[in-house]
Amino acid sequence: MNSLRHPLYIYAASRQTWPVTDQAPDLKPLIAELWGGKLRRLNHFIHLALAGAGHCARSVDARIAPQCELLFVSPGNIAQVISVSQRILRDRQPPMPFDFMNITNNMAPFYVAQALGLAGGGLTLAHRTLPFETALHLAMFQASQAGAAAQYLLGAVEECVFPLQHHRRQLGLPAQTPMAEASHWLWTGNAPANARARFTYCAFADSDAALAQCLAELPPARNLRLAFGFGVEAQAQAQIMQHFAAGTLNDYRGDTGYHATAPAGVAAAFSGGALLHINRTPQGRYALFVIESCD
Amino acid sequence: MAAGSRRRVYVRGSGIRCALGDGREQVSAACRDGGRAPSLRDSVHTASAGAPYCGFASTEIQGAESSLYDHLQFSVTQALADAQLSAAERSATAVFCGSTACDISDFERRYRADLLVDGTCLPQYSVGFGVLAGHVKDHFVLGGEEFSFNTACTSSANALLVAARMIAAGVYEHAVVLGVEIFNRLSFEGFHAMMLLSPDACRPFDAARNGTVLGEAVGAVVLSCRPGPAADGGQPFRVLGGANTCDTGSITSANATAIRRVLEQALADAGLDRRAVTLIKAHGTGTDNNDQAEGAAMRALYADAPLPPFTSLKPYLGHTLGACGVVELITLLACIRSGFVPGVPTFASMDADIMLAPLREHLAFGDGILMLNYFGFGGNNSSILLGNGN
Question: Which fold has domain B10-387?
Answer without folding.
Answer: Peroxisomal Thiolase; Chain A, domain 1 (3.40.47)
